Amino acid sequence: MIYAWKTSLLAFRDRRILSIFLFGFSSGLPFLLTLSTLTLWLKESGLNNKTIGLFVIATIPYTFKFLWGPMIDRMRIPVLFSILGQRRSWALVSQAALIVTLLGLGYSNPKEYIVQTALWAFGVAFFSAIQDIAVESYRIEIIDDAQKGFAATSTYLGYRMGMMASGAGALYLAAIFSWQITYVVMAALVSIGMLTTIFSPSPLEYAVNSKQSLKKGSLYTQFREWIKSTYGIPFNDLVATLDWRIVIAFIFLYKIGDTTLSVMNTPFLVELGFSKLEIANVAKFFGISAMIIGGLMGGVFLNHFGILSSLILCATLQIMTSLMFVVQTFAGCDLNVLIITIGFENLSCGLGAASFIAYLSSLCRTPHTATHFALLSSFGSLARIVLSALSGFLADLLPWSLFFSLTAVASLPCLLLLIYASHHFPYPRSFLRTAT
Q1: Which are the contacts of 227, defined by CB distance < 8 A and separation ≥ 6?
Q2: What is the pLDDT of residue 275?
Q3: pLDDT tens track for 363-387
Q4: In 3D, which of 125, 89, 65, 63 has the Cα closest to residue 200?
Q5: Is the dihedral of CA 265, 279, 62, 422 positive or negative?
Q6: Nearest-5° angle of CA 232, CA 427, CA 360?
Q7: Given pLDDT bands bounded at 50, 70 and 90, which one contains residue 226?
C-alpha cells in the first residue's frame, strides 16, 4: 500500500501531469463564481431561494458544450494555431474572454439589475465551457493509457484547488473588501491558466482537417455536408461504441445528490445562522481541503480497483452525506457538527469525482475527443440545471430535514444502476497497476 501511494505521488512529477493539474485549476476557478459563491452574493442581496435556484439557468452554456465541441475539433484560430496548436489556442482565447466577463460580473449589481448580472454570469459560463472543452481534450490527447488514472486525479485536484480559490478565497475577500474587488482578483487568477497554456507541451495533432472538400452543389447542399462531417461523423462514432440508455441514466442519476447539495447548501447554512467567515472557513476552505484529500484517495482507489468499484463507493457515500445534512438541520448552528457534515460531504465527493472524470474520458475516441467529451459532460450539465431549478422550489416548500431526506432517497437509483449494469463499467487494464 505504501508503494502504491508513492507511485501515485511520483506520477505528478511528469510535466504533462503538472500541466493538467494547472489546467484543472483554471477550469475550476470560474465554476463557483457562477454558482455557490454567486448564490451567497445573491442571498445577501435579498433574493429568495426560488430565484437563486432559477439563476443557475445562466450557466446553461455548460449544457450545450456539444454544439461547439466539434468546432473546437475542426476550426483553427488564425496565427495562434501555428504557435500553440489546436487545443491550446482555443484555451488561450477562452481564458482572455473569461477575464473580461468576470470583471463585468464583478461590477454588476444583482440587487437592482438582476438581468445584467445574469447576462455577465452567462458570459462567464460560456467561455468557461469553451475552456473546459479545450483543456479536457488536451488532457485526453496528451496522456498515454497507463497514466489516465493519474491524469484524471490531477485534473480533479487542480479543479478543486481552483474551487477553493473561488470559494473560500472569494468569501474571505468579500468579507474584508467587497464583491467587486473579489471578482477582480478572481479575474487576475485566470492568468495562471494563460501561462500554463503558453508553456505546456502540445499533444499530437490529429488529422482533423477544417478545410475538408465539399461536394459541388447549392449552398444548402454544401452546408448540409459540412454539418454532416462536423457533427454527424463524431456523434455516430461515439454512439456506435456506447449503450446510451446506461450512459444517460448514469450521468443524470449521479448528479442528483451532488447537485442538490452543492446548490442549496450555502442558502441552507445562511438560514441556519452561520456567518460568511464561518462558511468560508468550514464549508469552503476546510471542505475543499477534505475534497482534495478524498481526490488523492480516489486516485489510488481508481488505479487499483477500477472505475466501477470507485463509483459504487461514491454513490453509497452520497446517500450517507445527504443524511448527514439531515443531522445538521436538527443540530442547527453548531460549528462542530458542521465540520463533520462538511468534511464527510467533501471527502466522499472527492473519492468518486476522479472516477467520474475517468469514466467519461474512457468513452472518448480520437480524433473527436472535444466533441465526445463535450457531449457527455453536457448531459451532466443539463441534469445539474434541471435539478438546481427544482431544488430551489423544493427548498422553499419543504423543511430542510425533509428536503435532504428526499435527496438521500433520490440518490439511491444511481447505486442500483451501478449494480444492475455493472457489465457496462469494466475494469480497464489501463486504469490498473499490475501487482509486482
Answers
A1: none
A2: 85
A3: 877 777 767 777 787 777 777 777 7
A4: 89
A5: negative
A6: 35
A7: low
CA distance 138 to 425: 24
Taking the C-alpha atoms of residue 284 and residue 291, their distance in angstroms, rounded to an integer, is 10
Percent of the chain with pLDDT over 90: 29
- Residue at grid coordinates 474571505: 172
All three cell numbers of 247: 450512459
- Which of 138, 134, 153, 160 lies closest to 346 in space, CA to CA? 160
Type of residue at 420: Y
Residue 45 DSSP label = T
Burial class of residue 359, CB neighbours in 10 A (0-12, 13-18, 19+): buried
Residue with cell 455557490: 36
pLDDT score of 122: 95
Identity of residue 202: S
- Check: CB of residue 24 under 8 Å from CB of residue 162: yes
Residue linked to cell 511520483 = 10
24-81 per-position pLDDT tens digit:
999 999 988 998 889 889 988 888 877 877 787 888 888 787 777 777 877 889 999 9
Of residues 325, 388, 360, 435, the one with CA closest to residue 148: 360
Length of the chain measured in residues = 436
Sequence-distant (6+) residues with CB within 8 A of 27 are 128, 131, 132, 135, 136, 155, 158, 159, 162, 193
116/258 Cα distance (integer angstroms)? 28
Radius of gyration of the chain (CA): 21
From first CA to last CA, the distance across the chain in angstroms is 12
Q: 235 and 227 in contact (C-beta within 8 Å)?
A: no
Place of cell 447539495: 261
Span 283-302, mean pLDDT?
79
The CA angle 165-171-177, to the nearest 5 degrees, is 110
Compute the half-sphere exposure of residue 316: CA atoms within 13 Å on the CB side of its CA: 8
Distances (CA, A) of 180 to 25, 172, 173, 175, 342: 22, 13, 10, 11, 28
148, 155 in Cβ contact below 8 A?
Answer: no
Q: Cell numbers for 178, please give them.
A: 467587497
